[in-house]
Amino acid sequence: MIYDYHAVLGLIAVAIGIIGYVPYYRDIFRGTTKPHPFTWLGFAILNGITFVAQVVTGGGPGAWVTAITTIATLGIAILAFTRGEKNITIFDWICFIGALIGIVLWRLTSDPLWAVVIVTVADLLAFAPTYRKAFLRPQEETVTLYMMSVFKYAISIFALTTLSLTTVFFPVAIVLANVGIVFVLIIRGRHMSSAH
Fold first, then answer.
1. How many CB atoms sit inside 10 A of residue 137's CB?
2. Which residues contact residue 192 at a Cβ distance below 8 angstroms, ignoring those fewer than 6 apart?
3. I need a surface site. Which of 36, 73, 74, 152 has the fewest CB within 10 A?
4. pLDDT in tens, 155-181
5. DSSP string over the chain
């Protein structure tokens, strides 16, 4: 019975995740959202690593959202190389290389907790170019994706069958990162609208 409860929450988190990606993909094809290729490629790689770590440490249905996110972010990464942000800065390269170094460090550790901590830091580095772009051009991002990500990852925490620092660390950090970008997009969007 407890497993069923976790499975229901896991499915709800996956459904919210899928629903959240629909407007983002739509806006990419419309040309109004321009995803940063480094961010989304980093997300795809790092979510895949986190999914494996969550499964190995007994994450259960709470890890499902990380699996669906891996697939969705990979699709966005592929689209970002042709339809995404073209202005790649030195800052973006530093963050992307930092994220790749995180992957190398992850491979050097056999401890799942350290792997998740390293992957989470690398994921936040991958997020940084999108934060920069969101601050400069908030109209080129779809805020609903990040709002839905807050909910999907928050629900996924309660869907985890094993609550430990290893299984919870990544989703909590991603909830906070998404809350942050939602605020950046809303506040900067309003500021830029009132400036025109």
1. 15
2. 138, 139
3. 74
4. 888 877 778 888 889 889 999 999 999
5. -HHHHHHHHHHHHHHHHHHHHHHHHHHHHHTS----HHHHHHHHHHHHHHHHHHHHTT-GGGGHHHHHHHHHHHHHHHHHHHHS-----HHHHHHHHHHHHHHHHHHH---HHHHHHHHHHHHHHHHHHHHHHHHH-GGGS-HHHHHHHHHHHHHHHHH-SS-SHHHHHHHHHHHHHHHHHHHHHHHHHHHHHHH-
Boundaries of domain holding 136: 2-195
Please give the tally of structural domains in the chain: 1
Q: For 55-70, what is each residue's pLDDT tens digit?
A: 877 777 878 888 999 9
- What sign does the CA torsion over 36, 37, 43, 44 have? positive
The C-alpha atoms of residue 110 and residue 91 are separated, in whole angstroms, by 30
Q: How far apart are CA 117 and CA 35, in angstroms?
A: 25
